[in-house]
């Protein structure tokens, strides 16, 4: 069943978070709602794939704390690729702490090189807002939005309905700094908020370590997400370039089917 949505350009007007405006615009221009999760340990290998993936993706997601040779020279090379191909740099650090600690962690670990970071809703609105609002408002920092983790893809996770609803309320009340959610399904009717979903593969359903994968079509058409986050289904293949095209096309086709022509 196809549910009609607003176009990306209409939603760009409704968004107030600076990174969301940029994201809606680049998704529309590049015709992509694919975020590539590059979970290699070798820094050089990440950069090589990010360069190949650039034209196909709206964002490249990394885990800085899993990368060998992670340093300023590496982040400046990633920033150069993001500028060359016009994609967002997404550091999936999953911050969760008191406001003062959050602020110190974000300034040291992400604010200068990442466009967007993940944050758990668990510490509550005051901690999140007091840490991120000044950083995002600072013109000298690259960080321009956060994604709140509302639901997880892994089996047996503890994100219950109460947590998800509480996280949704924080996002809806702080749309100037919150780009949207990491989630499994659409949870908010606020059209400026963007639903990003991990746990996607067209070939497999689990990695045997708790991860749960479902198809692009289910994630976008049935569960009403906007952006699919795909990792090993692309990165661990012998021909990532052809998989990039395959996932980009499947995701864009599913999203386009639900948007006005
Ligand atoms: P893969 O497609 O290889 O399973 O990778 C998914 C990526 O998304 C990983 O980097 C993982 O840390 C992240 N992720 C997830 O899989 N599920 C979540 O609920 C939240 C995540 O950030």
UniProtKB/TrEMBL annotation:
Q: Please, which domain of life does this record's source organism belong to?
A: Eukaryota
Q: Which gene encodes it?
A: WBGene00099445
Catalytic residues of the enzyme? 92, 94, 97
Instruction: Tell me the part of the parent protein that is shown.
Output: 637 to 897 of 898
Q: Where in the cell is it found?
A: Mitochondrion
Question: Record-annotated residues binding substrate?
Answer: 39, 61, 153, 211, 231-232
Q: Which family does it belong to?
A: In the N-terminal section; belongs to the purine/pyrimidine phosphoribosyltransferase family.
Protein name according to UniProt: Uridine 5'-monophosphate synthase
């Amino acid at each position: 069943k196809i549910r009609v949505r607003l176009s990306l350009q209409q939603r760009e007007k409704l968004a107030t978070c600076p990174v969301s405006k940029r994201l809606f615009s680049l998704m529309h221009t590049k015709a992509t709602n694919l975020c590539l999760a590059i979970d290699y340990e070798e820094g050089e290998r990440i950069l090589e794939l990010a360069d190949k993936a650039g034209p196909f993706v709206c964002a490249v997601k990394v885990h800085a704390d899993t990368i060998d040779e992670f340093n300023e020279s590496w982040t400046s090379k990633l920033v150069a690729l993001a500028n060359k191909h016009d994609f967002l740099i997404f550091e999936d650090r999953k911050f969760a702490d008191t406001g003062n600690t959050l602020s110190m962690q974000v300034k040291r670990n992400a604010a200068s090189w990442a466009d967007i970071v993940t944050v758990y809703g668990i510490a509550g609105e005051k901690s999140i807002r007091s840490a991120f609002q000044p950083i995002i408002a600072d013109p000298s920092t690259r960080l321009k939005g956060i994604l709140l983790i509302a639901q997880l893809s892994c089996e047996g996770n503890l994100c219950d309905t109460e947590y998800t609803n509480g996280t949704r309320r924080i996002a809806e009340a702080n749309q100037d700094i919150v780009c949207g959610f990491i989630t499994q399904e659409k949870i908010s009717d606020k059209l400026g908020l963007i639903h990003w979903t991990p746990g996607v593969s067209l070939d497999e359903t689990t990695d045997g370590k708790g991860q749960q994968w479902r198809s692009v079509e289910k994630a976008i058409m049935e569960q009403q997400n906007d952006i699919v986050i795909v990792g090993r289904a692309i990165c661990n293949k012998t021909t990532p370039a052809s998989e990039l095209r395959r996932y980009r096309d499947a995701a864009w086709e599913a999203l386009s089917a639900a948007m006005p022509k």
